Amino acid sequence: KVSDLKGVQKFINQNQVSPNVQYFGKEKGKNVFIIHLESFQQFLIDYKVDGKEVTPNINKFYHNQHTIAFDDFYHQVAQGKTSDAEMMLENSLYGLPQGSAMVSYGAQNTYQAAPSILDEEAGYTSAAFHGDVPTFWNRNNAYKSWGYDYFFSDSYYKTKPQYNIGYGMKDKIFFKQAIPYIQQLPQPFYAKLITLTNHYPYELDKRNTSFPATKTGDNTVDPYVQTAHYLDQSFGEFEAYLQKSGLAKNSVVVLYGDHYGISNNHRPAIAKLLGKKSVNKYDLAQFQKVPFMINGGNLDGHIDHTYGGEIDVLPTLLHLLGIKNNHMIQFGHDLLSNQNQQIVPFRNGDFVSKQYTKVGGTIYDTATGQEIHPTSSQKKTINNIQKYVDDSLENSDKVVYGDLLRFHKLKNYKDVNKKTIDYNKKAT
Ligand code: GP9
Ligand code: MN
């Protein structure tokens, strides 16, 4: 009901952070590429197996002079996995405590998502690319609600039996076949490319395997670096295209990992990968870090240690593009803002913050990993953080369960008219 929206708006307004003048509008008007690195974790960055970098291309991009790379950035997905990541990244709304918000509420709810905000505020065309069937995670319906103009799913790509593996099209072939469609997009555009090959159980054909498996002895973990290496090569080829075509000059390129690849059920193997004798709950929380990096010609590249998560990507991106979001209902905050609280809620109520990490009822010092027994004053701070985490999740759920954005009118902003959107491939 509309009264619920009032409570949500109050919470949002109490937690606003203002843009950083050093970055606001720095990349205004640029095309945006969102590269979704499937199941790609932060520990892979600069990681070596037998002295060889697993992901040389992504590492180069991470250290590029125009890349801002966040190394204290976490996935915040629950059972919705990729769909939770997409929901958070493009709406700054959390997934649900169970199931997938995109599946259960993607079609019928009203959203004010990245594609429609960029269109309304700055005339962007938007396109999503994915080498899987359009119905997976209800994307074909959710993307219409989010205002995507185009959705190039599997039927748009020429396929042969050896082009597919695991969930769908191999990443190198997918990126290559996305290019002709990208070339036809009116600029400025917002293009999201979702990769697939680096997905459990990380299978890859011999011809495409050019990297040694790890030797943890856990055969669901050891091939992970091989498909991660293949994904890296695919990204390297796409990045080369962006450079050669000149698109890199007038585009912002965002890379992010959607969620973990290796689940917490493989603690002995995780310990071996990290060179530790064993891993505790703090180590496993740290293991949930995924990359988030933004490359843009006007950015002074650096590694940014701000604590954040997927919920924060949209506010960060909008501010870089010179679009204010303080009248929008978004639960994340601009990671480049000096006022960022640096609290990362997880869907189960756990959190990481600059000072404290709370996992499974245990409190750790975030910087040292030491378990702490909080003093009364520390308890006060921790309780305030917990209240913020609980309120964030509760208010976000209210928006999704109650479809509250249908009551939230933004000035000079027209809601998406889904009837004008059709993703079916036209017979040429
Ligand atoms: C399915 C692909 C994988 O299209 O995005 O989804 P996930 O299993 O990672 O949620
Ligand atoms: Mn995924």
TrEMBL record:
Question: Which cellular component terms (GO) are annotated to the entry?
Answer: plasma membrane
Question: What kind of membrane protein is this, topologically?
Answer: Multi-pass membrane protein
Q: Where is the Sulfatase N-terminal domain?
A: 30-323
- Secretion signal, residue range per the UniProt entry: none
> Which residues are catalytic?
82
The pathway is: Cell wall biogenesis; lipoteichoic acid biosynthesis
Superkingdom field: Bacteria
Q: What is its main location?
A: membrane
Does this UniProt record's set of keywords contain Ligase?
Answer: no
Binding-site positions, Mn(2+): 38, 82, 258-259
Example GO molecular function:
metal ion binding
Q: Which UniProt keywords apply?
A: Cell membrane, Manganese, Membrane, Metal-binding, Transmembrane, Transmembrane helix
Q: Where in the cell is it found?
A: Cell membrane
Query: Where do the annotations place substrate binding?
Result: 199
State the similarity comment: Belongs to the LTA synthase family.
Q: Can you name this protein?
A: Glycerol phosphate lipoteichoic acid synthase 1
Can you name the source organism? Fructilactobacillus sanfranciscensis (strain TMW 1.1304) (Lactobacillus sanfranciscensis)
**What gene is behind this protein?**
ltaS1
Q: In terms of the whole protein, what range is present?
A: 200 to 627 of 663
